[in-house]
Amino acid sequence: MKFTFLGTGTSQGVPVIGCSCEVCKSENPKDNRLRTSGMLEINGQTMVFDTGPDFRQQMLRAKPDNVDAVLFTHEHKDHLAGMDDIRPFNFKNKKPLDVFAHERVQVALKREFHYVFASDKYPGVPQVNLFDIHTDQPFLVGDTKVEPIEVFHYKMPVLGFRIRNFAYVTDAKTIAPEQLEKLKGLDVLVLNALRKKEHISHFNLEQAVELVHQLKPKRAFFTHISHFMGKHEDVSKELPKNIALAHDGLSIEVN
Q1: Beta carbons within 8 Å of 147's beta carbon, 6+ residues apart
Q2: Predicted TM-score (pTM) of this structure
């Protein structure tokens, strides 16, 4: 099983338009962050978590042979705006792409991409098979079991996903105890950590580190990082040995 960080930035990406802070001006490519997304390759299948505004650029960089499914975490624009760019996979495979989303996210998809779901479709629009995700019901992507994990992004429900001993959680600020139980016994945890200062809807660095200590995965990687976090190399020196800041393009093997 291999996971690739397609993007590790917050909703504005890094560098931020018009910003001249040291992070945004950094020449270290690890400080350049597209909007948060990830790609998991398992059992001969490739699934992507979210299709943000940078999805096309991410796919061109990652060069996957195929994408079999998209799993949406929530309905914010920085996580779904790029869904139109699934079309090359439709053309390549000559079939719709499987898309998994909670009912609430489906409402947003149907609003933002109304032409995809029209009864009389224009030729060449994206083709999808839309599947429901229910918060407490595991589901299958092909023959791979996926367990949803509900977290809260301030007051908005967001879904993380556990596949075997790997879990992906983004845009979280609070997680209920029964959902935390689903995140125990992991080899790898991917978790959002926005910045060092407290934030209303995201874990900050201290809170993310504390949660890793509580859950005790073998390794943890932080994503959804803003320019307020600081430079990648500087922050990396502050972290425990089993925790790392992710960066765009990073691929990791998971047992």
Answers
A1: 138, 161, 162, 163, 182
A2: 0.97
Give 255's pLDDT tier (boundaries 50, 70, 90).
confident
Long-range CB contact pairs, 65-68, < 8 A, 24+: 66/92, 66/93, 67/39, 67/97, 68/97, 68/98, 68/141, 68/142
Token readout for 119 is 């009864």
Give 152's contacts (C-beta < 8 A, 6+ positions apart): 158, 172, 173, 174, 175
Q: According to the model, what pLDDT value does residue 201 have?
A: 98
> Collapsing DSSP states into helix, strand and coil, what is residue 101?
strand
Structure tokens at 181: 């139980």
Q: How many angstroms separate the CA atoms of 123 and 53, rounded?
A: 23
Alpha helices in 10-157 (DSSP H): 55-62, 77-80, 87-93, 103-112
What does the alpha-carbon distance between residue 50 and residue 72 come to, in Å, rounded to a whole number? 5
Ordered alpha helix ranges (H), the chain: 55-62, 77-80, 87-93, 103-112, 177-180, 205-215, 232-236
CATH number of 2-134+143-253: 3.60.15.10
Residues whose CB falls within 8 Å of the CB of residue 247, separated by 6 or more in sequence, listed in order: 5, 8, 29, 30, 33, 232
pLDDT single digits (tens) 48-57: 999 999 999 9
For the chain, state the CA radius of gyration.
17
Question: Residue 147 is encoded by which pair of tokens?
Answer: 């367990």
DSSP 31: G
CB half-sphere exposure, 135, CA atoms < 13 A:
11
Is 94 in contact with 122 (CB distance < 8 Å)? no
Alpha helices, H only, 44-85: 55-62, 77-80
Instruction: List the domain boundaries for the chain.
Output: 2-134+143-253
